[in-house]
# Entry
Amino acid sequence: MDQPLNFSRRHLIAALVAAPLTSCRDAAPPKPKVKPNPNQAPDHPSGLVELIKLDPTIRLDIRYATTNNFTGQQLYNQARAFLVRPAADALGRAHRAAQDQGFGLTIYDAYRPWRVTKALWDATPPGPKRNYVANPKRGSKHNRGCAVDLTLHRLADGKRVDMPSGYDEFTLRAHRNFTGASAEALKHRDLLERVMEAEGFRGVSNEWWHFDFAGWQDYPVLDVPFEALGAKP
Ligand SMILES: [Zn+2]
# Structure
């Protein structure tokens, strides 16, 4: 979308404060999918892993911790990125595969507390704009720590690569089958898709930056704020 949505900061904050904390407690805990390594510090009980603790060369550009996002509002107090353990490990492998090609992963968004999804929904007037925000009744795969928004940067100069559209640009240029971008941009989009899909992530048709981790159904919707997930590294 070209214009920021007309969110009221007061409305948004009110919704964040009012959001209930109970959504994760009713759901079953995530099923372990990999044998724990006895030498590794235990994960947070939520199952979420901080990506830069896993690999400090993964870069962050957490747009929802700034006003530089489609809402024009700061939604997170901290610029941090978490995924459930199997998805985090898979992302680490995708990052290394990108490095072999001279690129690295830059994360825009990963786990998103449910209250933020709720606040976004409540602050979006009913109508077509709600097609772009997840319905909190179902929750989002981001709420399960099983979806990630990301792009590539070049290892040579650290700059973000050209992609067919900007992040959260809700136009046809963001669609995966869009062919009208430069050959460079299309090559970058294809490389990102290749390294992610090789590790069990699946893209969606209308956002080149968004990937869901296979098996997301096994993980509950969570509402743990970043501040409750340990000290910021
Ligand atoms: Zn996403």
Notes: DSSP finds five helices and seven strands in the chain. Residues 85-100 form the longest helix (16 residues). The chain has one domain: 9-27+48-228. Residues 109, 142, 147, 149, 210 surround zinc ion (CB under 6 Å).
